[in-house]
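The freezer alarm interrupted the setup, so I double-checked each line after restarting. Inputs confirmed:
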Amino acid sequence: MRHRYRFLTIIGCTCGLLLAKAEESPSNPWELASRMLFDDARNAFEVARESVPTDETVSLGWAVARLNEPPVTRARIEQVRSTLEPLSASADATIAQTARYLLARIAHTRENVSSLDEVYRDYLEIHEERPTSPLGQLAGAHAIIIDLTRKGASQADREQAFEHWSERAFRFDSPEDARHLHQSLAKLGWHYKIENEKLIPHIEAFLESGVVTKRLRRDLEARSAWLTHESGDYPTALQRYQRFIDNNPDDARVKIMSERLAEVSALLAQASRS
Amino acid sequence: MKASSNYIGLAALSVAYAISLLYVIQHKVADEPTINDDRKVIRFGHWQLESGIRGAFDAVVREYEALNPEVRVEQLAIPDRAYPSWLRTQLVGETAPDLVLFGGVLKYDEELLARYFTPLTSKLEEPNPYNQGTDLEGMSWRNTFLDSLDNAYSVGLLDYYYAPAAMYTIRMHYNEQLWDKLLGDTPTPSDWDEFIEINQRVSENAYAQENAIMPLAGSGYNSNFILNGAMERVTQRLNAQLHRAPYTTAERSVIGSAWLDGDISLKHPSILLGLREKSRVMRFLPPGFYQLRRDDALFQFGQGRSLMLATGSWEAPSLMATVPFDVGVFLLPQPDPKKERFAAHAYGVSSEAKAASEAGGFVVLRSSANSDQAIDFLRFLTSKPGSSLFARKSSWMSPLRNIETPEETEIYKPVLDGYQHGFHLYFSGSNSRRVFRQRVNRLISGGAEAFAESSSDLFLDGVREDVVLESRVARQTAQRQDTTIASLHFLSSSSDDPGERKRWATRRNETMEAHIEQSINHAWMEETLYRYDRKKKEQ
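Predicted 3D structure, all chains:
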C-alpha cells in the first residue's frame, strides 16, 4: 500500500517539477516537505534530480527536505550546506534569498558558534536587502531576537536595542511591511518588561498587520487591553476590552474582561462627574 | 526415559501450536467479511473500555450501517496501558485502523500526526451533512462543537486533526449511604473551606469509631485533580500577573523563567497558600497515595473504604454501574475569593470552556484505503443524531452545541461562566514534579513553611532541568519549521493561481508567527538560564 503511494508520489512530483509548477496535489514534493514528510519529499526531489540534475529549484527542495530528515547528523547538515552555498549566489532572487536564509539558520541553530555576531550580521544583511519580503522580515525578526537576548547584557542595553529596532519598525509605511518585526518586539518587550507606552504600539501594529494565528491574536488583544488599563489610558482600555469581548465571545476570559471593562467604565463615569 | 520425555514435550508443543493456529485462523475468519459481504470495512480503534461505551459505539455503528448499507464498521477496543505501543506497532506495520482515538493516554505528538494522519481542516469548515434537518444544519462542522474546537488546532502543523466524540469534566463523587451515616443531612460543600471541614469531620469520626474509612480515595492519578486544582485556583491572580494579562493557557517558559528569576518561589504568598491547602488535603488521602494506581482508588471507593473520589466524567457511568451504593456528585470545591485569605490570590470558579477541545478525538489514517468513508463515519458520530445517540447510550456528554444533556449528566456540564485557572506547583515539567514527590513527606509532616524552607534549592534545580528541556523542545520545533517555512514560501511564490498563492502565503505567515514565538521562547529561556547559573555561581 505504502509503496503504491510512494510510486504515485514519485511519478506525480517528477511531472510537477518538470512543469516547474507548485501543484496542490499531495504528491507535490514541496507540499510533502511543508507537511514535515521529510523523507518522502527528499525521495521525490531525488527522483526529479535524476531527470534535471542542474535545476536549482530541485536542488533547493532537496536541501530543504534533507535539513530536517531524521536522523539529523552533522554529515547531513554539511551535505545541505554544500548544496545551499552555490544556490545563495543564484540569479533567481527567491532561490538565492531562501538559500542564504537557511545558511544563516544552520549557523544559528545547528552549529556551536562561539559568537552570534556573525550570524546577526548575516540576518541583518538578508533583512536589509529586501526588508519587506517575507524572508527578509523573518531574518529581521531573528536579528532582533539575537540583539535583545544577548547573554550578559544589562536592562539598559536591552532597552537601547529595543528603541533602535522600534524606530526601524515604525519607519515602514505600513505595519504589514514590518509585521514580524512588530511581533518580535511585542513579545520580547513583554518578556523584558519594557514600559507599556513603548510596548503597546508594537502589539497594536502587529494586530493591525493581520495576525493569522487565532490563538495568538486573542492573547494579544487581551494583553493590549490589560496593559492599556495598567497605563491609565482608560478610554482606550475600554475600547480594547470591548474589542476582545466582541471578537472572542466563546473565550474563557470573557468573564474577567467584562469585569475589568465595568471597572474602567465606572472610573470614567466617576471622572466625568467630578 | 529421557527420549520419551522429549517426545512428550514435543507432542505438547505440537498440540499447543495446533491450538494457537486454530485460534488465529478462527479470528482471521471472524475478522474477514463473510463470502457474500462485499461491503467496505471501516475500523476504528480506541481505549475506552469503561462500562457501556463499547455498546454505545455499537449503537452508533448500527445506525450508520443502516444509513449506509454498503459499509461495515468495526471497533477495536484496546486497554489504555497497551494503547500507545499497540498504535505505534500498527502504524509501523501499516495495519492501523482507519480511525484512531488521539489524546488522553496517547501523548500529543505532532510528528506522529504529521506522518500518519490526515488534516481535517478543510472538511471541518464544511457543514456536516448528517446535521441536515437539525438546528445545526448549515453550520460548519467545526462550529457545531461547543468551543468551535479552538484549542484543538495544532499550532505546529497549522491544521485541525481530530473531532471529539465526547467531552469530559472532573467532579467529586461520593458514597451517598456513607455520607448519610457519617454526616447526616450535611449538604455537599459549596466551597473549599466547607470541603476541608467535611474531610475533617469524617477523619475525626474514623478516629473515634476506630473504623478505617478515609475521607478521600486517592492515587497518584486521582489526587492531582484535587491537589493541583487547589494550587491552580490560588495562583489565578499570580498567573495573570506573570503573563501581564489572563492568558489562553499558562506558558511553561513563562512559569519556568519566573521561578529561576525569583519572581516566584516556594515562599511566594500564593505558592505558600497553595502548599498549605495541599498539605491540609493530603492528610485526608490514604497513606502513600502517590504510589497507588487509578484502579486502587476505584477499588477503595467501591469497597466503601473512602467517602469521596475525585475523577472525570468518563469514569462516572462505570462507577455508578459497578459500586453497590448510590453515588452523588458535586463540583470540585474551589477557594472562595470573598474570603479574606483567598481574596488576593484567586479570582473565582475556574472556567471549563475548553472541555470539548481538550477531550482529544478521532483522527483519520492518512494511508486508509477508505479515508472518505472513515471521515463520513466520523461526521455521523459527531452529528446531532449520532452524538445524541452516543451520549444517551454511554451517559457521556456530547461535545456539540444545543444538545440536551440527560438528567444524570447535568452536573458534569462544563462551567462556562468562570475564570482562567492558574498553574500548579510543578507546571514547569517532570523534573520539578520528581523533586516535589521525593520531598512530599516533609510537606505532610512539617507543613508548608518547613517544606518551603528545606526544599527551595532542590526544587529550583528541578525547575532548571525543566527549563533546559523546554528550551530544547522550542529549539527543535523552530528548526523543523525551517523546512515548512521554506516550502510554503516556495509554494506561495511559484503558483500561477492568485488564490493558491494567497492560500500558501497565509499558511507561511502562520508558520512564521509560530516560528518566531518558538525562537523567542528558546532564546529567552537560554538567556534566563545563563543569568540563573551566573547568579548561582556568584553566591
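Quick read of the result. The mean pLDDT of chain B is 91.
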